[in-house]
Each structure stands twice: as structure tokens, then as C-alpha cells.
Design goal:
Length: 221
């Protein structure tokens, strides 16, 4: 909206940041109404005090920090549950979607389930893979095999660790699928001797974070 300042609150109010914005609007536009006689415990003014206004920026920072912590805790919890479920499917080939491509490999998510697992570039074969940052892709110099963000591809689940929420995938052909002739597994899909099986209706190695489109922008309230 190209505004220098912006705030909003939801209806019904359900977060502390909503309450702060609502109370500041009551004070700014002189919308204060007397408390109902039957409700004696309500304070006389419901707008923000001068002291509240002075600490508004600090309170906003604290709210944003706690929201980010809650989102991170939620994501890690989901990752652990997904890894626990998929730990019974290690070795199985499943349909995935590439969610992020980096120079060290790409992340993929199980179709219809979620979770992010890494496919290290070192497991893509003996050839060298070039990383194209603008296209978010990895391409083999010999085979021309290309892995692009958003691509659907069959992968074998190589590891699922419920303790850390980590998932690791590999190509169905295995680590050393590239022959001396330079022929690879193709440009996606199952290939090799594995066939994708549907997983009933989600993580990532513990030392690597998923780098892709965030699930939601963190913004100060």
C-alpha cells in the first residue's frame, strides 16, 4: 500500500497486538464510552495511557519476537511428527515436489503430506551440477539432468529422524546412478527400478534450514 505507517486489527479481537491497536484508536478518535453500571471491574478509560504510547515500539518488537518463536516451535513440531510417520516408509519411492534449490542440493516435500527433505548434490551422480540462482535450478554438465523449483519428481526416502525432524531423500537409482557414458536418470520422474507409491496423508537435516518461500512474512503488529 506504500504507506509510511500501517496497522490493523482483526475482528473479533484475538491477539494482544489487536487489543493494542484497538485501544490506541479509541484514544486517538475519542471513542471512549462509559463502562456499563453492572460491570464494576472495568477500568474507567480503555484507551492507551501516555506510558503505553511511549513503549509502543518496544511492545511491538516483543510481540513479533514471540510470534516468530511460536511459528518456529510449530514448524519443528510438525517436522518431528512427519518424520515419525515417514520413519516407517524409509526405502520407499514417493512422489515429491521440489520446494527449494540451492548450490548444495535441493529440498523436496512429499506430495499431499508435506515436510522438507534434502537431496544433497553429492548424491545426484558423479558429474558436476551447475547451480543457476536466477532460475533456481541445478543442471548436470554431462547428462543435462535438470532439477527446478516446483518440479514433481519421484524420490526414495533414505532417512527419517523423528528426534530432529530430519528427512533425507535420494534418487530412486541411488547415489552412483551416473554411468561412464554420462547418461543420467532423465529430467525427473521415477526412472530406475523404483516406482512411486502414494503416502497416506511431512523434515530436514538438523543442521540445515529450508530456504524457500516463507510460510508467512513476519511483521510487527
Amino acid at each position: 500500500m506504500a504507506l509510511g505507517s500501517y496497522a490493523h486489527f482483526t475482528s473479533p479481537i484475538r491477539r494482544y497486538s489487536d487489543l493494542l491497536v484497538h485501544r490506541s484508536l479509541v484514544g486517538a478518535y475519542d471513542l471512549e464510552m462509559p463502562a456499563p453500571p453492572a460491570v464494576a471491574h472495568l477500568p474507567a478509560p480503555t484507551s492507551l495511557s501516555e506510558e503505553d504510547y511511549k513503549h509502543m515500539a518496544r511492545v511491538g518488537d516483543l510481540i513479533s519476537q514471540h510470534e516468530r518463536r511460536a511459528m518456529e516451535a510449530e514448524r519443528e513440531t510438525v517436522d518431528r511428527y512427519v518424520a515419525a510417520y515417514l520413519s516407517e516408509h524409509v526405502g520407499q519411492v514417493m512422489l515429491t515436489r521440489i520446494t527449494s534449490v540451492q548450490s548444495f542440493g535441493f529440498f523436496a516435500s512429499v506430495d499431499g503430506l508435506g515436510g522438507d527433505g534434502l537431496v544433497p548434490v553429492s548424491t545426484l551422480g558423479a558429474e558436476r551440477f551447475r547451480y543457476n540462482e536466477s532460475e533456481r535450478s541445478l543442471e548436470g554438465e554431462q547428462s543435462g539432468d535438470r532439477y527446478v523449483q516446483g518440479q514433481m519428481i519421484d524420490l526414495r526416502l533414505a532417512e527419517a529422524d523423528p528426534a530432529s525432524g530430519a528427512l533425507r531423500f535420494e534418487l530412486p537409482e541411488g547415489v552412483s546412478h551416473l554411468s561412464s557414458s554420462g547418461r543420467g536418470p532423465g529430467r525427473g520422474g521415477a526412472g530406475g527400478n523404483g516406482r512411486a507409491r502414494p503416502i497416506q496423508r511431512r523434515g530436514r537435516p538438523a543442521n540445515i534450514r529450508h530456504i524457500g518461500n516463507p510460510r508467512g512474512k513476519n511483521r510487527k503488529r
